[in-house]
């Protein structure tokens, strides 16, 4: 049997981001079929936006774009057969679940944790940042919520998250989701299929 | 033989916009196969951006986004088998060709004129705004360049273009290309296929 290292596909995402929701829900199945491995790269969009001098999401700051987005995301969820309810609060604070995802990004539970937090935000329309919210998600998965949350809130993990944000800016990330395959950047759920195709068929050099 | 009015698909575009280039080149073939009719809606992005307080394209104002776009557009042109050369000047002034397109938007030559101006900008990397540039495009098509340019620069057409810009803002347009099918808005070349599908299969009411 031929064995080779599967191609790797990074997904940079924030639980506050509705287009990240689409990709977080879709990526694992697509990657499996393409024989690629997903590398989860949770980060906070807020500091990236702040580095551009923005005080909020462009969907909040730009009224016309925001109004369009709320229509577009409904059609997109239909397209991918994903549940959707417009969150009463947008964009939601996502600091704690992002910290937990960062802490657990190499754990076997990471993909399901991410999907469950996303569904909580964009289908159940519930808070995702309170400790009780994150603990509920982890407990539903049969995990030790208290221990994981404690580790996620430890100084080392907080430092890692700040470094992750600096790395995002250094990589030229300006929105989410953003994908990387062998250094090639793809922005937006609309490019997930292209990123998967690149991961499945590495360009010969 | 069954006859029915073909569904109509509006494309709002500016010759200065590189993602408009992709859609202007693709839309006529796609619409023909879907049995839909293209309504050309040339407009100037500049006044729309100015209405948001922006002095230039987001691809110029936002460095990270602009750098990504120059990579993305190369991949997109590969995807659609379209020629591409990065314009030495971006975004190019497009006032005169937009005026000509507005003047001729119901003429049989409109689609080909639009494609030729786009190729001049994004494949030949030539000025598109000088009278000689527009005249060359029209003359290559066997049209009366002098008469068309005179009509395009007449006061009535100038007023029409200002009204078109006000209409764009009123419709909530914030970028280009933007498509409308039966009042439903689709933004970006990435949504052209969805807009075509909507035009081909009207939603029953």
Describe the structure.
- 2 copies of one chain form a homodimer.
- Chain A is of the alpha+beta class and 205 residues long.
- The first copy, chain A, has a single domain, classed as Glutaredoxin (3-Layer(aba) Sandwich), CATH 3.40.30.
- Helices cover 54% and strands 11% of the residues of chain A.
- The first copy, chain A, is built from 10 helices and 4 strands.
- A 4-stranded mixed β-sheet of chain A has the order 2-1-3-4.
- In chain A, strand 1 (7-13), helix 1 and strand 2 form a beta-alpha-beta unit.
- In chain A, helix 5 crosses helix 9 (155-170) and helix 7 crosses helix 8 (145-152).
- Chains A and B meet through helix 4 and strand 4 of A and helix 4 and strand 4 of B.
Nutshell version of this structure?
Chain A has helices spanning 18-34, 45-51, 58-61, 63-79, 95-103, 110-122, 131-140, 145-152, 155-170, 192-200, and strands at residues 7-13, 36-42, 178-181, 184-187.
Name the average pLDDT of chain A.
Answer: 95
Rg from alpha-carbon coordinates of chain A = 17 Å
Largest beta-sheet details of chain A? 4 strands, mixed
Specify the overall morphology of chain A: globular
The helical percent of chain A reads 40-55%
- What is the spatial order of strands in the main beta sheet of chain A? 2-1-3-4
Number of helices of chain A: 10
CATH architecture of chain A: 3-Layer(aba) Sandwich
Biggest contact: A-B, 23 and 23 residues
Looking at the structure, the CATH topology of chain A is: Glutaredoxin
Total domain modules of chain A = 1
- Oligomer category: homodimer
SSE run of chain A: EHEHHHHHHHHEEH
CATH superfamily placement of chain A: Glutaredoxin
Low-confidence stretches of chain A: none
> Which structural class fits the helix and strand makeup of chain A?
alpha+beta
Q: How many runs of DSSP E, i.e. beta strands of chain A? A: 4
Distance, first to last CA of chain A: 25 Å
- Taken as a percent bin, the fraction of beta residues of chain A is 5-15%
Report the top-level CATH class of chain A. Answer: Alpha Beta
């Amino acid at each position: 049997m031929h064995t080779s290292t599967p191609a790797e596909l990074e997904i940079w995402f924030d639980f506050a981001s509705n287009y990240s929701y689409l990709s977080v829900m879709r990526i694992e199945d697509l990657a499996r079929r393409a024989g690629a491995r997903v590398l989860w790269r949770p980060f906070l969009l807020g500091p990236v936006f702040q580095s551009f001098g923005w005080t909020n999401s462009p969907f909040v700051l730009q009224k016309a774009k925001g109004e369009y987005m709320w229509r577009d995301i409904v059609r997109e969820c239909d397209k991918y057969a994903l549940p959707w309810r417009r969150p009463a609060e947008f964009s939601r604070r996502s600091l704690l679940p992002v910290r937990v995802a960062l802490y657990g990004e190499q754990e076997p539970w990471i993909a399901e944790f991410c999907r469950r937090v996303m569904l909580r935000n964009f289908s159940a329309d519930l808070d995702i940042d309170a400790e009780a919210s994150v603990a509920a998600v982890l407990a539903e998965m049969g995990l030790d919520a208290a221990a994981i949350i404690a580790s996620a809130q430890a100084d080392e993990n907080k430092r890692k998250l700040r470094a992750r944000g600096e790395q995002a800016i250094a990589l030229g990330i300006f929105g989410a989701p953003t994908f990387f395959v062998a250094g090639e950047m793809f922005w937006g759920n609309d490019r997930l299929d292209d990123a998967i195709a690149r991961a499945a068929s590495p360009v010969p050099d």
